[in-house]
Automatic annotation (TrEMBL):
Similarity section: Belongs to the TRAFAC class myosin-kinesin ATPase superfamily. Kinesin family.
Binding site for ATP: 98-105
Segments forming domain Kinesin motor: 11-250
UniProt name for this protein: Kinesin motor domain-containing protein
PANTHER family listed in its UniProt record: CENTROMERE PROTEIN E, KINESIN-LIKE PROTEIN
GO molecular function, one term: ATP binding
The entry's keywords: ATP-binding, Cytoplasm, Cytoskeleton, Motor protein, Nucleotide-binding
Any GO CC annotation of this UniProt entry: microtubule
Species of origin: Plectus sambesii
């Protein structure tokens, strides 16, 4: 997870979550090879095929979550500060990284139909609009989203009508690196944002769960831009903009 430009702390945070063994893994007699110490933010790996007496290896991260960790606790510790900084006008990026079957989709999306199993993406959508609804009358918010896919080194706009069109990367001194002509959709609530993401997912080159050589080349970036206009003590409107990038790496 990275929290670029936010106040305080390191800009990049690495958080490790170990999922529980699946029923099949238990049936096959597998055992956990790692121990997670959430208090000391440490993961200890034992080599089951190692020689007798081989010492376990310990690694320390910015936070660690064990097999019984709850989605809400993970959200509060990892994503909540990033989303809060986005609302304050900073940029932040969240992505999950790991081998197939390690729990990336569970952590990022989760099971939307069960509130306590919702992952970072639906929780961040709800959080953004919840904070906006609680903000004072002196602030006006505008929330926009865009969704692009990088596939075979080409960029496609997942929210565009014409999916055959490829977009170009450009750079400008005032805005930095950007994707030219990428569509941007204004969103009024978490459910609407969820629908737009689902629509974009349908336009992806290969289904996200279809693990093969093709899907391993498809990356997607869902960007939420939050603009806030606030009346200052100087009676002038002050504009600030933060972006949250949710990345699905191949
Ligand atoms: N923290 C967790 N608690 C309970 N079950 C989990 C957890 N993490 C993952 N699982 C379960 O483990 C299985 C694999 O997880 P998931 O599909 O999220 O992996 P993935 O890393 O996204 O895999 P792929 O790269 O193949 O898409 C799923 O059945 C999921 O529900």
């Amino acid at each position: 997870m990275s929290d670029i430009g936010g106040p305080g702390g390191d800009n990049v945070k690495v958080i490790v979550r170990c999922r529980p063994l699946s029923d099949m893994e238990i049936q096959q007699g597998h055992q956990m090879a790692v121990e997670v110490d959430e208090v000391n933010m440490r993961v200890t790996a034992n080599n089951p095929a190692g020689e007798v007496g081989e010492p376990p290896k310990s690694y320390t991260f910015d936070a660690t979550f064990g097999p019984n960790s709850k989605q809400v606790d993970l959200y509060n510790r990892s994503a909540r500060p990033i989303v809060e900084n986005v609302l304050e006008g900073y940029n932040g990026t969240i992505f999950a990284y790991g081998q197939t079957g390690t729990g990336k989709t569970y952590t990022m999306a989760g099971d939307r139909s069960v509130p306590e199993k919702r992952g970072i993406i639906p929780n961040s959508f709800a959080h953004i609009f919840d904070q906006i609804s609680k903000s004072g009358d002196d602030k006006t918010f505008l929330v926009r989203v865009s969704y692009l896919e990088i596939y075979n080194e080409e960029i496609r706009d997942l929210l565009a009508k014409d999916q055959s069109h490829h977009l170009e990367i450009k750079e400008r001194p005032d805005v930095g690196v950007y994707v030219k002509d990428l569509s941007s959709v204004t969103v009024g609530g978490a459910d609407e944002m969820d629908k737009i993401m689902t629509l974009g997912n349908k336009n992806r080159s290969v289904g996200a769960t279809n693990m093969n050589a093709e899907s391993s080349r498809s990356h997607a970036i869902f960007t939420v831009t939050v603009e806030c206009s606030q009346l200052g003590i100087d009676r002038q409107q002050h504009l600030r903009q933060g972006k949250l990038h949710l990345v699905d790496l191949a």
